[in-house]
Design goal:
The protein is of the alpha/beta class. It has 9 helices and 14 strands. The N and C termini lie far apart (about 45 Å). The structure holds zinc ion.
């Protein structure tokens, strides 16, 4: 069966102030779920109990505590596969995956490709399959993660790699940062019509208390300045903010990222 044949059922579990832990329903056995980046066990356990679901596997994108902190608590419910990047800072993993490796969970009818996307951290990975992308803190809606460990060239290449996935790909990010990211995106591109329209939609969604995610890659390529480093308007905004010419897209990316780091 082609990998896109199964449309995923994914529900968010909120954790901390703005994290999302994603629960992917097994297409084969809908009472079983896979948790992505469970930074906290309690809200996941509450959701499993409320909906009478069973945890069947855990996927981890990177080592930050708000993405892995709930793993030991969840494993107390029973041992399940824990698939994670090859990084010694991630305990409890049962399998480390590298770039291009497949994570098959045949009993659940699920399979994902591993994409190495260094930048936010050096060992950050994303999981792609069934038309969905679980990208942790690499790509956010209308923004991207901070570069804690990588460099601009790396992070720009990681984002370009994600940008090449099919445009209809559903993007499941690790945080609800969309509204704040859009304020920055519209500072970079004040006349971006899609971003303006997205902002009013996001305002309505947030006013109702709902998640703005998943996004889609096609929307992100229209509104997310970090995926638009090769677009003239983004480049000239970055150049005038940096006060110098930026010859390469990764230099545009670096200028945008440090601009955003200062942006309030
Ligand atoms: Zn992180």
């Amino acid at each position: 069966m082609p990998i896109h044949a199964v449309q995923l059922n994914v529900r968010p579990v909120r954790a901390f102030s703005d994290n999302y832990i994603w629960l992917i329903e097994s297409p084969k056995s809908p009472s079983q779920v896979v948790a992505v980046d469970p930074g906290d066990a309690a809200p996941v356990i509450a959701e499993l109990t409320r909906r009478n679901l069973k945890l069947a596997a855990i996927l981890l994108t990177h080592h930050h505590p708000d993405h892995i902190g709930g793993v030991p608590g969840l494993l107390r419910l029973g041992q399940v596969p824990v698939i994670a990047p090859d990084d010694e800072r991630i305990p409890y993993k049962t399998r480390a995956v590298r770039n291009g490796e497949r994570c098959e969970l045949p009993d659940l009818g699920l399979g994902f490709e591993t994409l190495e996307v260094p930048g936010h951290t050096v060992s950050h990975i994303a999981f792609w399959g069934h038309g969905a992308l679980f990208c942790g803190d690499t790509l956010f809606s209308a923004g991207c993660g901070r570069m804690f460990e990588g460099n601009p060239k790396q992070m720009n290449a990681s984002l370009n790699r994600l940008r090449e996935l099919p445009p209809e790909t559903q993007v499941y990010c690790g945080h609800e940062y969309t509204a704040a990211n859009l304020r920055f995106a519209l500072t970079v591109e004040p006349k971006n019509a899609e971003a303006l329209e997205y902002q009013s939609r996001v305002d309505r969604i947030r006013a109702a208390g709902d998640p703005t995610l998943p996004s889609t890659l096609s929307l992100e390529t229209q509104v997310n300045p970090f995926l638009r480093c090769d677009i003239g308007s983004v480049r000239s905004a970055a150049e005038s903010h940096a006060g110098k010419n930026l010859a390469e897209p990764y230099e545009v990316f670096a200028a945008l990222r440090s601009w955003k780091d200062q942006f309030r």
